[in-house]
Design goal:
The structure is a homodimer. With about 700 residues, chain A is an all-alpha fold. Chain A has one domain. In chain A, helix 11 crosses helix 15, helix 12 packs antiparallel against helix 13 and helix 17 runs antiparallel to helix 21. The model of chain A has no long low-confidence stretch (mean pLDDT about 90). Chains A, B: Keywords: Cell membrane, Ion transport, Magnesium, Membrane, Potassium, Sodium, Sodium transport, Translocase, Transmembrane, Transmembrane helix, Transport. Chains A, B: It comes from Methylomagnum ishizawai. Chains A, B: Sodium pump that utilizes the energy of pyrophosphate hydrolysis as the driving force for Na(+) movement across the membrane. Chains A, B: Its cofactor is Mg(2+).
Chain lengths: ~700, ~700
């Protein structure tokens, strides 16, 4: 039977394998053609902006991490502080790498698209794969090394929870700050450029245009990556922590989530291979019977591939990886010697993740009824557009909630049947989360591909590439919109399972014996918890407005003070706008961010550990709903506009289109700032509670 | 010591006293001048429309009540079915009376306003007082009579819960149906009348104009009345049911909420007297020292009274009643011989109710920052208007939640300290709800006054009364908007306390011993419960759109088929539009309404009674937040528009005003349909669970 250490070492090795792949793929992407002079200069500006953002952000982050690490070291243990720092660094590193390659792949994707749709896809997807595999590998590597170092003492897993807290803190900055940044730059650029100066979108004369392009990467690459880095790490940590209290066989239970992570790397690599493999590779032409089977399912992507074929290729890569997980996780369960029920639990997670992703796609795709109903409502003006979009967003919560509820119920039931305890049930919930995220390497690749294709389209537009190339980048971009919707579904679904798993781990760690709904502080805790996502969303939405206003002022200043800017002879100071967006975003996110860390601590110390459990339940439930609602309403408004732009209801410029633009603008902070930030809120609050679990008592209000 | 029966008999007598007052006030209001010919003919059309609505609605209701009563008689007990029918009839009766007088006071208010602001106020407030006192008296009378009939058997209180269920069912129709009705008529009238035909608002040629005016009464008088009828009845029932399980002294505990209701009638009558008293009354001129003190605080309302003086008069009437409650409830607590802690609990409820009302006013009044921030955002178009309004609505949830959480915490703590059990704590929560609603007679009067003044303004406008009179009715109307906001705060706050009290009663009645958060079905129950308000809101919002569409078709038909309608020589068929609005509203509310009744039953039977408790908690928490958010966002948008109409940011017709109109239109279904309907959803689900509590087992999924 495979015990904890053996499983962890396998995971460590797979983490290293992932990094080897990342290095190889990185070299491959960077060796691609960078296109002509104009393209390179635009790309350079975006890269410069991204560096400016990262250097500013990491300076603030360093201070934050140092302060929190000191607090942890002082009040809990230095080992936890070390794990916290490692988690922060690993997450930041993965985010840095993902963004580094994304802002270099955009121009290469545009150049490759000159040779065909399939070449563009390979470059952009390769970039996404680097992000996906870095997230998974950095996370596995960090956790396994810390586990092996601090192994032997009984508190080992308590220390390692610090890793999740560190990852969570970075995610907070990346998601909230990034979300504010991207929408502030977007709105700021539009308000002065399009409205006041009358220059087109993506015009290089606009000083905020680069900040806008940087924003896409900041929000959708770095933000999404950090978000899922955290879900991935925390679901494994929560499962391991719960496994540790599962009695006799606990070492096998601790090892299993790591082992699933390890086989997930293999499965994801196969999925990525299914998209990026080229016909002239040796491995593609091998006659070895195993490799023939291995190659049998690989999609043929050549110059004749249609858009639909490419979408199918992306989908099949996820399905291929999932199929491998089904087999590999059975082996993992057999090897660790735990009940076969846990294999079913992993499958439940896998199915639930794909189910939620499917629902998300249904509600946000313009080939389906919900988006069309919004487009129809656009005919009677912006008010009905907003009402119908809100109704669609609210309606779209139904199936994700039912899927999650059933997944939790079945997981708890399977765990309970296998090992007869509530803890086993909670362990199963955590394991379902691990299962949902096991193919993260490839699902994140299909997701992080999107913004690269989006940027490539912008570069093609700005550098006036031939019509045919721009059509191809547009096609790649629209493909990215579909995968982005799916990715958001995964991010939310996994956040909920992770938060609940962390809640279970917290309850175990805080040694709460009976957690009655009727405990005096429970109902107030739940109510306050349910309120926090509303407060948090209100803050982040207002923050976008404030930050955008500062950018408007800066853009106006540059147009006034830089000679020849409007005529195209003066060079705008892109970095200034980037700096202001960054600064504004980081400043505006301090209050909501601090709130996420401080409120659980206040409630835990003042109202006690039971109230804190109530708080977490309330926040998770209402945060889940609000996040799904806002993300899907935003996505649906966006695509209703795109649907009208295909010529429906009068097409571009019609009254219906104007109403749709209002919907889209309202949806921007919904789907790119407030909604996704809630993923972090619910996880961060849970992990803060878990890390500080041992410090909470029964509160000042004891009965 | 006062025992249950004595307290109940006192409450019965006070109920009768209330009805005597209602009869007297009704005679007084109806004897007022009805104005000129034109005014009377407009009023007659509104009255005709209201009758048409009521006759249709009550036909559907009778079928619904009969079916549910049969189910209750078959599966539970015939006594419960009787109580259910009585509750439904009592609520419907109060609603009928309130609406009957409201549609007759509107024209009399307009006529009285010719003689002065204060005369208009007295008539409109008198109409509100009839609504307020009928709700309180009918409820007390119904409950006490049933209590006395079914007294003696141990199940007596279980039977009487049927009264709350009956009231709840009527409330569902009144709120959801009324909410859909009023907004469908509003939108339908505008779309054809203003947009297609170019005739002004409130033009008598528009066949839907009467439906629109009827709608105001349907939603804001009958809907609000039924909503609070239910809160009032259910909070008393829940307290009594919980009191019954409080051991030795249980008879005193059962009696106390009835006694508070009884003294509340007295206090409310004093509050109403403070506004309506005229100087030539004998009682006003009495030299009896008690009556001199009694008169000392009565506001002098004469022809010189300013608008601010009138607002103060309304506020002082609520404060005067509250002050009396402080004294009377101390007597009640001393008479029943329970711990003084329960007196504090009543005060907590009273303070919490006023606190929530104050916050609601702050967030929706255009003299305060939140509404001004929305008006400012209107300058940059409809999108920023919607974003800022949503942010304000979300932000406005913070204090109502904190106030409620503290009220619950303190109540549980006080109850627990007094009688050392969790049930005592829950009893205290229910009692806080009773305390919050103890002054309902007068708070509802200030609230139901609003739509009467609104209608009076419409009648004054349509019948071209002198400028001076219209200014007065406008002033009375704006006063009504302020009190309406306060009333909405009370409705939501009391709904939450009532729902939690009913939850407590359900848990006791279902004999759930340990209700752990970690029970396998609890988390899925909470998640599904939290989702229901989103689903419900999505349905009711879509319903408004569908019903409005049917009215558009009918109005178009009448303009085509009735000769001379546009020229003013043909008479429009108002009743047809009223009928279609009614039918549409009742049809569209069937699915969401049925859902509210059926889902708790399904969850209770399939997932078991623990999951049902989780479901109720989830629904209450997320329903509370969504209701506050939608009501306040809607109110804030409405007043942001009004603020701009005072000349800010370009005033009427400016781009900012156009953006504000979009916000106001989005806010309409938020604040008048979906938001208030959630009050009913959370209470109805709780009371259905309580009524069927004994029938639920541990579900099909036992572990």
């Amino acid at each position: 039977m495979l015990q904890a250490n053996a499983s962890v070492i396998i995971a460590l090795l797979m983490g290293i394998a992932g990094i080897v792949y990342v290095k190889w793929q990185l070299k491959r992407v960077l060796s691609c053609d960078e296109g002509n002079e104009t393209m390179r200069s635009i790309a350079a500006a975006i890269q410069e902006g991204a560096s400016a953002f990262l250097s500013r952000e990491y300076r603030v982050l360093a201070i934050f991490v140092a302060i929190v690490a000191a607090i942890i070291a002082a009040f809990l243990a230095w080992q936890t502080a070390v794990c916290f720092v490692v988690g922060a660094v690993a997450s930041a590193g993965a985010g840095y790498l993902g963004m580094y390659v994304a802002v270099r792949s955009n121009v290469r994707t545009a150049a490759a698209a000159s040779h065909g749709l399939h070449q563009g896809l390979r470059v952009a997807f390769g970039s996404g794969a680097i992000m996906g595999m870095s997230v998974v590998s950095f996370s596995l590597l960090g956790m396994t090394i810390l586990f092996l170092i601090f192994s032997g003492s009984p508190e080992q897993l308590t220390y390692v929870t610090g890793f999740g807290f560190g990852a969570s803190s970075i995610a907070l900055f990346a998601r909230v700050g990034g979300g504010i940044y991207t929408k502030a730059a977007d709105v700021g650029a539009d308000l002065v450029g399009k409205v006041e100066k009358g220059i087109p979108e993506d015009d290089p004369r606009n000083p905020a245009v680069i900040a806008d392009n940087v924003g896409d990467n900041v929000g959708d690459v770095a933000g999404m990556g950090a978000d899922l880095f955290e879900s991935y790490s925390s679901s494994i940590i929560a499962a391991a922590a719960l496994g540790a209290s599962l009695g006799a066989n606990s070492l096998a239970f601790i090892g299993l989530p790591f082992l699933i992570g390890a086989v997930g790397v293999l499965a994801s690599l196969y999925g990525i291979y299914m998209v990026t493999a080229e016909d002239n590779w040796k491995i593609r032409q091998s006659t070895n019977p195993v490799l023939v089977l291995f190659n049998k399912f690989v999609t043929q992507i050549d110059e004749t591939a249609s858009l639909q074929a490419l979408l199918d290729a992306l989908r099949r890569s996820v399905w291929g990886a999932s199929a491998l997980i089904v087999v590999f996780s059975l082996l993992a369960v057999l090897l660790t010697g735990v009940s076969l029920n846990y294999w079913f639990v992993i499958l439940v997670g896998l199915v639930a993740g794909n189910g939620i992703a499917y629902v998300t796609e249904y509600y946000t795709s313009y080939t389906e009824k919900p988006v069309k109903s919004i487009a129809e409502a656009c005919q009677t003006g912006p008010a009905t557009t907003i009402i119908q979009g809100t109704a669609v967003g609210m309606m779209s919560t139904v199936f994700p909630v039912l899927i999650t509820a059933v997944a939790i119920l079945v997981s708890i039931w399977l765990g309970h049947k296998a090992d007869g305890s509530i803890t086993a049930g909670l362990y199963a919930v955590a394991l379902a989360g691990v299962g949902m995220l096991s193919t993260l390497g490839v699902t994140l690749a299909t997701d992080a591909y999107g913004p690269v294709a989006d940027n490539a389209g912008g570069i093609a537009e700005m550098s006036h590439l031939p019509e045919e190339v721009r059509q191809r980048t547009d096609a790649l971009d629209s493909l990215g919109n579909t995968t982005a919707a799916t990715g958001k579904g995964f991010a939310i679904g996994s956040a909920v399972l992770t938060a609940l798993a962390l809640l279970g781990a917290y309850i175990t760690a805080a040694k709460i014996d009976s957690l009655s709904i009727l405990a005096p502080t429970m109902l107030p805790g739940i109510l306050i918890g349910a309120m926090l996502p509303f407060l948090f969303s209100a803050m982040t939405m207002s923050a976008v407005g404030k930050a955008a206003y500062n950018i408007v002022l800066e853009v106006r200043r540059q147009f006034q003070e830089i000679p020849g800017l409007m005529e195209g002879t003066g060079k705008p100071d892109y970095a200034a706008c980037v700096g202001i967006s960054t600064e504004g975003a980081l400043k505006e996110m301090m209050i909501p961010g601090t709130m996420a860390v401080v409120v659980p601590l206040i409630v835990g110390f003042v109202l006690g550990k039971e109230a804190l459990a109530g708080l977490l339940i309330g926040t998770t439930a209402s945060g889940f709903l609000l996040a799904v609602m806002m993300a899907n309403a935003g996505g649906a408004w966006d695509n209703a506009k795109k649907w009208i732009e295909t010529g429906q209801y009068g097409g571009k410029g019609s009254d219906a289109h104007k109403a749709a633009v209002v919907g889209d603008t309202v949806g921007d902070p919904f789907k790119d700032t407030s909604g996704p930030s809630l993923n972090i809120l619910i996880k961060l609050m849970s992990i803060v509670s878990l890390v500080f679990a041992s410090a909470f008592g029964s509160g000042w209000l004891s009965f």
